[in-house]
Design brief:
heterodimer, A: mainly alpha, 5 helices, 9% strand, elongated, B: alpha+beta, twelve-stranded mixed sheet, eight-stranded mixed sheet, 29 helices, 24 strands, disordered N terminus
Chain lengths: 113, 895
């Protein structure tokens, strides 16, 4: 079965949840920070994607970390194992594409950060 | 938070409103998070820069809108996949869902056959009535006359306000003048006539004919199917006059033999040559005319004094505007008035379209009234069906709510309800067309056969298209209200409530409005039809001052070589009177030149001894020419003096009998009129008798004089033969014909009919309107009673529980009935008041058809009000009575 290709927004959301569970606004902030502000998700687009991925079973609602009562009312999201493997497969295919691009000299060689 | 809460909450409220654009499920799931996201995001944007807030709002709004649209689309896709079928082509899908709506609608109707039958039949009556009336109105009013470029054709008349006439033909001299002087139009002319036809082909007959100018057919643009049009020289005395014959006559009398051309035929004793055959079905002004001989005017007829009896028919030249033509006609007329002041002083020469001449005011007003009446019937039918559908959709509100909950969109539900309305409308339309076939046949049967266009009345393409239009309009009219109402049903409330919605809500108000409208329309229609029927009955029952019972009339016209002088003509009539008088069963016999209501001739006069202000402005009097014993034959008492007798011969004293109106005008009393002298162009007349005013020429008696036909030249007269009381006048037809043959076997006798039938025929316009409106009025009454009953019955059903509670709390059955009836009667009362107002404004337009009835006739208004009130009482009383029979225990348990 072919792997579902994620949209850039979905990819970034899953990526944001890869390390830890986050609430909606946290996901947005994380993406903005990582992309240097080039991807700024609106609330509608974000929750639309969350709903879709929730239905697909790629992410789920999680317990808020810590004991802060204000925080515990917030809905946190985390990756499911399906979501994690889908993310990995997508990233793998991206890695392949990037390798091809480098080999074709469309992209310069990636230097270690 | 840095911002004041008030401000923040306003933004939040706005954002919250925006969120509602999302599908319900989404909002339900994510609203708190979205709000939280929004607050955090806005705080950050505000902290960044003042401009940040602007770009923040721009981003937020576009983002929300775009994603909401995406969400809706996804949701629809999902539902389609889940509930129905694999994704398919858009158009096919639409067709499929329409078919599904149709199936549901048909199933729904089949499940409630009572509702279906009432709704379809109600609409069918409305649509059928509209199609029927429109089929006739289309022929009379919309269809162009059957001549090429018929809009260029006009009829000319004169009007003279000073002398009191509005539409009078031209004298031969004026006709010639107009024909020679008008350059902007081709001018032909005609006048009505009857001719005795004799040839070696068949029995002599009397035929309706029209004397025409040689170019009459050319002006109409109609070419003969055989032969040629007459030529100008055939109008000259001394040549053999040409005659065109009808296709029907060519078939019946000449066996469709082309050899009929150039044959000679004797018309009123003058040899004519058949030169052409008119196309099949050709008609002008009236049907049933079989001969168009070319007129040849004698020198005497060319004189302006010889009367005005030529109707000019003109075709405006195609390159000339109507304004130019009218200007030239008026200039020619003004010249004729200036040149001949005695005769044309004060006259205006004008043109009306040939269409308006053929289908006159009576057609126009009648058509308008009938169309309005059927429209009212249709509106009442629509209101009824709308009420039925409304009640039904309310009853089905639970079903609608369930369907909505299962994901049916508002649009889809509107479409479903509209589909149901359309199915009812289309079925009603189909049945309506079937009804109109019967209706048209009935309508044609009461229209006189010689009415122009009568044979063309039928279901034409145009009338079917009209029916389609009416049907579509109907569906929208009665379908939309329930559809909008039905789709506005509140999901949760309908599910909570046991399907018992609608009482006191918008739906209730709409239904009440429809009942009010219905009662108002019924009121207008019933008052109108009541007035028209009353007028028609008046017309039949009016005391005209003479008796039409037991009288046979026969028309005779003496022409030919045997009748060249006045004495011969007079001798024929005197001898005919004697012969007919000796026929067993004949009590009285006489003759008159004009039958009742068949027009009249009038002459100007002066009274000896009365000063004349202006020779050119003499008054007019209606002149009848009668044979002896006329007043005895029509049972009119002679008030003073004597009637016309056999002693009044050409050589004896020239006398006149006048009516009371005339006597009163000049002499004050009947007695004083005796011996008075009337000065006429052709000599003085001494008044020898006075009779009551007769409504011979029309409903309003005019000043009239009766002159002995034996003292003038009257070629054509109607013989009147009275049988004894109870005798059958038609049984005398054959013996009376034999008697006339004994005087002159060559003279045809025509238009044999009882005087009563002649009268009926002359009042057919009023009769048609009376009957059509009577039928429509009854239909309106029935439909509106059904409407009131339906709404009341529904209300009672809705309030069963309330009634149960009231009765459990001690209300008497009587109180319940009163309660229920009050509601119904208030609606009916409001509707009737509204209708009364509308009727008062509307009935004035009916006056053309109202004989002896005021448009505000109190009796009719009161009668109709009483009738409608009674009907409304009955329609509310029956359901109200049923409500009182409610068993409180059952009613309360019904929850």
């Amino acid at each position: 079965m072919a792997t579902t290709t994620l949209t850039p927004a979905e990819l970034q959301i899953l990526l944001a949840l890869a390390a830890e569970s986050r609430h909606g606004y946290g996901i947005k902030l994380d993406i903005e920070a990582r992309t240097g502000g080039t991807m700024r998700l609106g609330s509608g687009t974000l929750y639309e994607a969350i709903q879709r991925m929730d239905k697909q079973g790629w992410l789920e609602v999680a317990q808020a970390p810590g004991d802060d009562p204000a925080e515990s009312r917030r809905k946190y999201y985390r990756l499911t194992s399906d979501g994690r493997s889908l993310l990995e497969r997508n990233l793998e295919s991206w890695r392949g594409i990037v390798a091809d691009a480098v080999a074709l000299e469309v992209l310069p060689e990636i230097r270690p950060a | 938070m840095s911002a004041p809460t008030g401000k923040a909450s306003l933004s939040e409220r706005f954002f919250e409103t925006l969120i509602r654009a999302y599908p319900e499920e989404f909002v339900h799931c994510y609203r708190p998070e979205l709000m939280e996201f929004f607050r955090a995001d806005m705080d950050r944007a505000r902290a960044a820069s003042p401009l940040g807030l602007v770009s923040f709002w721009a981003r937020t709004v576009t983002d929300l809108t775009a994603s909401a649209v995406r969400q809706h689309r996804a949701l629809r896709r999902e539902r389609r996949q889940a509930t129905e079928r694999p994704p398919s082509h858009r158009g096919r899908e639409f067709v499929h869902s329409v078919m599904q709506d149709l199936r549901i609608a048909l199933r729904g109707l089949a499940a409630t056959p009572g509702f279906a039958a009432v709704a379809i039949l109600t609409l069918a009556i409305g649509i059928g009535a509209n199609t029927t009336i429109f089929s006739a109105v289309e022929v009379f009013m919309l269809r162009p006359l059957p001549y090429p470029n018929s809009h260029e054709l006009m009829a000319l008349y004169t009007a003279n306000a000073e002398r009191g006439w509005a539409q009078v033909d031209y004298s031969v001299a004026d006709f010639h003048a107009v024909r020679e002087q008008l350059t902007t139009a081709d001018v032909g002319g005609y006048f009505w006539d009857n001719v005795n036809v004799a040839d070696d082909r068949a029995q002599p007959v009397r035929l309706d004919a029209m004397r025409i100018s040689h170019n009459f057919f050319d002006v109409l643009g109609v070419a003969p199917v055989l032969g040629r049009s007459p030529s100008l020289d055939e109008e000259q005395i001394g040549t053999t006059p040409a005659v065109m014959i009808s296709h029907a006559l060519w078939n019946s009398r000449y066996g469709a033999d082309p050899g009929a051309l150039d044959q000679l035929v004797e018309l009123d004793g003058v040899m004519h040559r058949i030169v052409g055959v008119a196309p099949e079905g050709f008609w002008f002004r009236s049907l049933g005319i079989d001969m168009w001989p070319v007129f040849q005017f004698t020198e005497g007829q060319e004189s302006r004094d010889a009367g005005r009896w030529v109707g000019p028919l003109v075709r405006r030249r195609a390159d000339v505007s109507q304004e130019t033509f009218v200007a030239e006609l008026e200039a020619v007329g003004a010249r004729l008035a200036a040149d001949f002041p005695d005769y044309n002083g004060g006259s205006r020469f004008y043109a009306i379209t040939l269409h308006a001449d053929t289908f006159d005011e009576e057609f126009k007003v009648g058509s308008t009234i009938a169309m309005l009446a059927v429209l009212f019937v249709l509106l009442i039918a629509c209101a009824n069906v709308a009420n039925l559908l409304l009640a039904r959709s309310m009853r089905r509100s639970r079903e609608v709510a369930v369907r909505t909950a299962l994901g049916a969109s508002r649009g889809r539900i509107i479409r479903q309800l509209l589909t149901e309305a359309s199915v009812v409308a289309v079925l009603g339309g189909v049945v309506g067309v079937l009804l109109s076939v019967v209706g048209i046949r009935a309508l044609v049967s009461i229209i006189p056969p010689e009415t122009p266009g009568a044979p063309d009345i039928g279901l034409s393409g145009i009338s079917l298209a009209f029916t389609g239009l009416v049907t579509a309009l109907t569906a929208v009219l009665f379908g939309l209200a329930p559809a909008l109402q039905g789709s506005a049903i509140q999901l949760t409330e309908s599910l909570k409530d046991g399907g018992r919605t609608g009482s006191g809500t918008r739906g209730g108000r709409l239904r009440k409005g429809l009942v009010i409208a219905e009662m108002a329309l019924a009121m207008v229609l019933l008052v109108s039809s009541g007035l028209l029927v009353k007028g028609y009955l008046n017309l039949r029952a009016v005391d005209r001052g003479f008796d039409t019972g037991d009288v046979l009339s026969l028309r005779v016209s003496v022409h030919g070589t045997r009748y060249t002088d006045d004495e011969a003509i007079s001798r024929f009539y005197v001898r005919a009177m004697e012969e007919i008088g000796s026929v067993p069963g004949v009590m009285h016999v006489s003759a008159i030149n004009r039958l009742p209501l068949s027009g009249w001739s009038s002459v100007s006069y002066s009274i000896a001894g009365e000063p004349v202000d202006d020779e050119t402005r003499l008054p007019f009097v209606v002149r009848h020419m009668v044979m002896p014993d006329f007043f005895g034959t029509v049972e009119v008492p002679v008030l003073v003096g004597r009637g016309i007798t056999v002693r009044d011969m050409a050589t004896s004293q020239q006398v006149a009998v006048v009516n009371q109106a005339f006597a009163g005008r000049h002499f004050g009393s009947a007695e004083d009129a005796i011996g008075g002298v009337i000065e006429l162009d052709r000599g003085d007349r001494t008044i020898v008798g006075v009779v009551p005013d007769l409504a011979w020429t029309g409903p309003v008696p005019r000043p009239t004089m009766f002159l002995p036909a034996t003292q003038a030249t009257v070629r054509t007269m109607s013989l009147l033969v009275r049988t004894g009381a109870g005798g059958d006048p038609t049984a005398l037809a054959v013996p009376v014909r034999r008697a006339i043959e004994r005087v002159d076997p060559a003279l045809p006798v025509f238009r044999v009919a009882t005087l009563q039938d002649v009268m009926l025929q002359q009042t057919q316009g009023d009769a048609i309107m009376g009957r059509v409106m009577a039928v429509l009025g009854i239909v309106a009454l029935i439909l509106s009673v059904i409407g009131v009953y339906g709404v009341m019955a529904y209300n009672v059903q809705q309030r069963v529980q309330e009634v149960g509670i009231r009765m459990a709390l001690g209300a008497e059955a009587r109180d319940v009935v009163r309660l229920m009836m009050r509601q119904g009667m208030v609606l009916a009362g409001v509707g009737m008041l509204l209708g009364l107002g509308m009727a008062l404004a509307a009935t004035r337009g009916l006056s053309t058809f109202l004989f002896g009835v005021s448009p505000f006739d109190v009796g009719t208004f009161a009668g109709v009000t009483g009738l409608l009130l009674g009907a409304a009482l009955l329609a509310t009383w029956v359901p109200a009575l049923r409500s009182a029979k409610v068993d409180p225990n059952v009613a309360l348990r019904s929850e």
